[in-house]
Model the fold of this input.
Amino acid sequence: MTKKILVVDDSFVMRTLIKDIISSDPDLQVVGEAANGADALEKVRLLSPDVLLLDIEMPGMDGIECMKRLKLISPCKIVIVSSVAQVGSPQAIEARRLGAVDVISKPSGALSLDLKAKKGSDIVTVSRRAAGLPE
Done:
């Protein structure tokens, strides 16, 4: 059964790259995208995704605030894909405390055009794990 993925990032370019990465796996389907946390919460209610790929730094409602509110409305799993969530950073620690399945750092900052080459397989593997699929 195909698992539904919602991609949340304020950058259209990054959303497009992440959607391309996810679409390489036939068991994963991007059902929507959002540009900030508030938009993500609305899309979660409408689309009931299994997994949310979530950036942290976004205008309006950031990823951390979105995670806090998401717990109240959905059981979907969260994977952080963010330039500020480096291993051991306060943001990564907080995301894990709030229940993130994993934290994947963007390799070259907020606009990581090399995301597919450097982290693509990690994103697919972690998304599959978060969705309960074999890795």
